[in-house]
Every structure is written in structure tokens, then in C-alpha cells.
Design goal:
The longest helix is centred in the middle third of the chain and has 29 residues. A 7-stranded parallel β-sheet has the order 3-2-1-4-5-6-7, sandwiched between helices. It is built from 8 helices and 7 strands, in the order βαβαβαβαβαβαααβ. The chain has one domain: NAD(P)-binding Rossmann-like Domain (Rossmann fold). Helix content is 48%, strand content 16%. GO terms for molecular function: diacetyl reductase ((S)-acetoin forming) (NAD+) activity.
Length: 257
């Protein structure tokens, strides 16, 4: 494909890292945005070692002005802007009685506001450059059906499906599509921590905690980050040009919709 520019938040590890590397292999120049600039830099080095083009961006997605500035910096550096992947997020284990106002504010600001700020910054840049673009947001299978002990995470991921649909309606006439991807149980540090906390809350092992999520996967295995990155690759590329407002569930067959 003609060289295009993609911006991936939470790109320093896990699913975000896999997405950044996959989009670089697809031919995108990739901005790897993360709070951890050092780890983002390691991902950039890995991309460059394979002949790709990338840059690290330190970013707190909950900071609206910083997000807009980061998008401007990337567009200036790479000479364009075409795709944003709002992947960054928090996933605390939250039985109902444990949720505090501070926790609510923090998770909502990162997961939901951070996605909205990314959409705003991307749309402003698409309009400035005079072309359409692609918005790709991270939901979750926990944004399709409620998961035990994940009140905060589920609420944000359900919200992301909704705001993605609104954006798809509002922006279609400008050639801007908006879609979401909904990973299942992925082998990432975040998922391992969730399994640990769920097991701990029940007085059981990490393996038991993981089994509460993974027991219903039709394909019989946990997801690798590359499984999710492949779906994002499709949404970022030209084969998905006639798709908007959708949430692609990438969970190995946990939910059928």
C-alpha cells in the first residue's frame, strides 16, 4: 500500500505493541504512543530493525491538549495522518463494593475520555489534511457481555462501542470510518493481572482466575496479541473501506452476535 501514517496508543506492550508492529509490516509509518516512552522506544527500534518507519511519543491519553499536540507532532514528522488506533486502557478488577470515586474518575478518563480525545484529534487532522481516515477503538468481549468482577472495565468498553457507532454516523459523509475491535482473553500482562486479582478475591489460584474467563473459548486456546493485531490490520487497510460502526469480536468464539 502507499505509505500511510498510523497512530497507536498504548503501543509499548501487549496488544498495542503487536498492533504497531503489524501495521508497520503492512506499510504504515507508525507512531507508538505510550506513557512509558522508553518501552515505546524499544518497539520503535524493533520496527526499524525490520525496515519499518516509526517514532515514539510519550502520551497520557487522558490529557486532551497533549493528545492533540501529539497528533500534530506525528503528522508533521511523517507528512500525513490516516489512522488512529485508540488502544490504551486500564482494566482494574472491581467488585461492585470496591469502586471509589477516584477509581471511577481515573478509569473513565483513560478508557472513555482518552478515546474521545483521540477521535477529536484525529478528525481535526483529517479535516485539516482534506481527506477521510479511519478511527479504530478498543472495546472488548467484556464490552459485549458483562464479565464478573469487572464493573469499571466493562462499563467503559460498552461505552466505547456506543461512541464508535455515533462517530460512524456523524463522520460518514466526510469519508471517515469508525470501528472497534473486541479482544477476548489475550496473553498480555494486563490479562494475567486480572486473572491473578480474580483468583485472589476468591481465595483461589491464578489458573482458577484465568479459567473463569477462558473456559468458554470455542477454539480452545487463549488469544495471542497477534490475533488481535490481524483484525486491526484489516480495519486499518483498504479491504474494510465499506465497513463502519461495527465491533469486530476477536475472542476465539466466546460470544456470537
Amino acid at each position: 500500500m502507499t505509505k500511510k501514517v498510523a497512530f497507536v496508543t498504548g503501543g509499548a506492550q501487549g496488544i498495542g505493541e503487536a498492533i504497531a508492529k503489524r501495521l508497520a509490516r503492512d506499510g504504515f509509518a507508525v507512531a507508538v504512543a505510550d506513557l512509558n516512552e522508553d518501552k515505546a522506544g524499544e518497539v520503535v527500534k524493533a520496527i526499524e530493525s525490520e525496515g519499518g518507519r516509526a517514532m515514539a511519543v510519550k502520551l497520557d491519553v487522558a490529557d486532551r491538549e497533549a493528545f492533540a499536540a501529539a497528533v500534530n507532532t506525528v503528522a508533521d514528522k511523517f507528512g500525513g495522518f490516516d489512522v488512529i488506533v485508540n488502544n490504551a486502557g486500564l482494566a482494574p478488577t472491581t467488585p461492585i463494593e470496591t469502586i471509589t470515586q477516584e477509581m471511577f474518575d481515573k478509569v473513565m478518563h483513560v478508557n472513555v475520555a482518552g478515546t474521545i480525545w483521540g477521535m477529536q484529534a484525529a478528525v481535526a487532522k483529517f479535516r485539516e489534511l482534506g481527506h477521510g481516515g479511519k478511527i479504530i477503538n478498543a472495546s472488548s468481549q467484556a464490552g459485549v457481555v458483562g464479565n464478573p468482577n469487572l464493573m469499571m472495565y466493562c462499563s467503559t468498553k460498552f461505552a466505547i462501542r456506543g461512541i464508535t457507532q455515533v462517530a460512524a454516523r456523524d463522520l460518514a459523509s466526510e469519508g471517515i470510518t469508525a470501528n472497534a475491535y473486541a479482544p477476548g482473553i489475550v496473553k498480555t500482562p494486563m490479562m494475567m493481572d486480572i486473572a491473578h486479582q480474580v483468583g485472589k478475591n476468591a481465595g483461589k489460584s491464578d489458573e482458577w482466575g484465568m479459567s473463569t474467563f477462558s473456559k468458554d473459548i470455542a477454539l480452545g486456546r487463549l488469544s495471542e496479541p497477534d490475533d488481535v493485531a490481524a483484525a486491526v490490520s484489516f480495519l486499518a487497510g483498504p479491504d474494510s473501506n465499506y465497513i463502519t460502526g461495527q465491533t469486530i469480536i476477536v475472542d476465539g468464539g466466546m460470544q456470537f452476535h
